[in-house]
Amino acid sequence: MRLLGLPWALALLAAAAASGPSAEPPDPASIFADLSPAELRAVRTFLMERPELGLSPSRGGPLAKNSLFLAELLPPEKRSALRFLERGGARPPREARVVLFFGAQAEPNVTELAVGPLPRPRAYRPLPLAAGRAVPFWARPMTRREYELLHEALAAAVAPLEPLLREATGFGFQNCSERCLTFSDVAPRGLGPGERRSWLVIQRFVEGFFLHPAGLEVLLDHRDPDPRRWAVLRLWYNGRYFGSVRELAESHARGALPLARLPEPPARRLFSSYEPRGRFPGGTRTEAHGAKVCEPQGRRYRLRGNRLEYGGWSLAFRLRSSAGLQLFDVRFGGERVAYELSVQEAIAFYGGHSPAAMQTKYMDAGWAMGASSYELARGVDCPETAAFLDAHHLLDADGPVRFPRALCVFELPTGVPLRRHFDSDFQGGFHFYAGLEGRALVLRTTSTVYNYDYIWDFLLYPNGVLEAKVHATGYIHATFYTPEGRRYGSRVHSHLLGNIHTHLVHYKVDLDVAGSGNSFETMDIRFENISNPWSAGARVVQPRLHREPRRREREAALPLGRPAPRYLLFSNPRRRNRWGHRRTFRLQLSSHAGPVLPRGWREERGVTWARYHLAVTRRHENEPSSSSIYSQNNPWDPPVTFESFIRDNETIEDQDLVAWVTVGFLHVPHAEDIPNTATPGNAVGFFLRPFNFFDEDPSVASRAPVIVRPLDPPACSRLQIRRWTPASPGPCVHPEPFSYNGTYRPL
């Protein structure tokens, strides 16, 4: 069944469903809330009961079946959402975006549908993809069932290598009990469209197995839905290629194969574990608790469902299964600053000497990084004072799965004043001291996409500044060390190469600066050489402002290989502050991003957004995302190609604009990345800063400053101390002991 070809009449199915009155009107922010477990179940039940879809359970069974892969919220169109939020219009109907795998048909494909209205769905309709066609079945994301079959196929195929593996590693695939081998797969799965063949890195299954490659990599073709037709195409062992399992096994049997013998892993203090080892010089006490965050008078923010309020800020948020955190209706002082801020994609492109390393180009939306939001540890991942929220995903499962404590919210002392001044009298005294403590509210989640952990933050500051930040941590993607590998990274252990890679993250920022009609300009300085007006014959060299309005999309696409102008300004041309300036927000990048591939190279087509520090486009409903969950397995001809967003070169003056932001960094792994990459120095992001948007710093509304004035200058022996908070914050102790569960289970 090719659903995109179904007539609309078939897609809109009639079913009688009475709608009862609600007990109380829900918060307006709930139009952006993730689907509840009840809604996810209703969507699945509705689709499973449609005979024309012929759906089977997701778990178990063959790959050649029709199944539900993903269900998540389909956000309302912006126009209808604003009509409801601002003008009292009708509440937009809630709909689900679903991804269906149609494998049990002559032309298998992947199709997306909108299902609704919720909570009692009675119709579905096709969702057109940017390319206007169904996604080929070979480009679908991996499923748990395919991994199960892949493991079985791999273990069977390399059975003749069991003597080699046992001799070299002490581990195996057959009857291995606690000394088993496992694998990590890399992507994309081939060199061009139509392929689904994956390089598998064989590893010893110990704690931190990502750092324990066995020296063997296997190329396995699994394009056919029937695993009986899968086959090993090539192998790489300890720097040499082999055309078949038999060739490698015979080479070992003849004694012609140089074995890479791995040392026996210790029972304790394995180098890839977190167990403490060694001591700091100087006797620093690390057995005692360090500094903690506290809320002596209770929480200063409000969390109601998916609405978050803090100081002048208010916003709605969700955690979508496909790509992660998404903010909506972001306001300061009641005025909307942005309609949407969201993570779009995170990629890591590698280089190496082994085939798996040179093939690795991870695009993490294709691995459902939003649904990789596992439990946050109180006191480690978030302060003990944080509010924790669960997430529910329906991804590759036969019902909703609860991910406990997947998000957290907390107020954070920044450790530096938001602003301060000491006004010296230059005679040993002072006129006054004033300071305002630095605080920010943090909304956080994580994505553990196999080896890497991304920590995603949005921070709200009381002066109207918003920061988006991502920290990279977790295990490096490492391969087996060979001397040739040093050109592509660092040797970080006896048999381990940390491979060079570039991380890039893409964000969507749908700005509404004092309204939705905005313009974009860049600003920097140029030096001028002028006659000195107060000294005849002299010259003055000084900076002056250089403004450059960007009137069309091509002019507003700033290439990644060149420095971007330092001021990126979004303003409302019709609204001005008290001092006559356009009301403006500045986008400020914190990034060390560089290109990942030459422009136009094969896989680069799947990440054309990575060509730009920033690209500014007119907002269109049919351009909701810069990437897709299908780009990973089909980067050569992806259904979403970001370059098409700017190809028509539309005018962007006084329009509803979207800023597409790329941030990232080059990572050359080093010995200190063992056992894990640490967060300091591995964070990138951007700020949204008011730039003549207000008449003054809006944090003057805070009641947290301290002002000290001498009553008897210049002696300064009697002081007036003014503050608007209690003189003492009180005790700062959280009585609950540490607890952690770590499970995520179907409901």
TrEMBL record:
List, for all copies, the residue spans of the domain called Copper amine oxidase N2-terminal. Answer: 39-123
Molecular functions (GO terms): copper ion binding; diamine oxidase activity; primary methylamine oxidase activity; quinone binding
One cellular component (GO) term of this entry: plasma membrane
* Signal keyword on record: yes
| Sequence ranges assigned to domain Copper amine oxidase catalytic in this UniProt record | 292-699
Give the positions the UniProt entry annotates as the active site: 364 (proton acceptor), 452 (schiff-base intermediate with substrate)
Keywords assigned: Copper, Metal-binding, Oxidoreductase, Signal, TPQ
- Kindly list the cofactors needed: Cu cation
According to UniProt, the name of this protein is Amine oxidase
Its lineage opens with: Eukaryota, Metazoa, Chordata, Craniata, Vertebrata
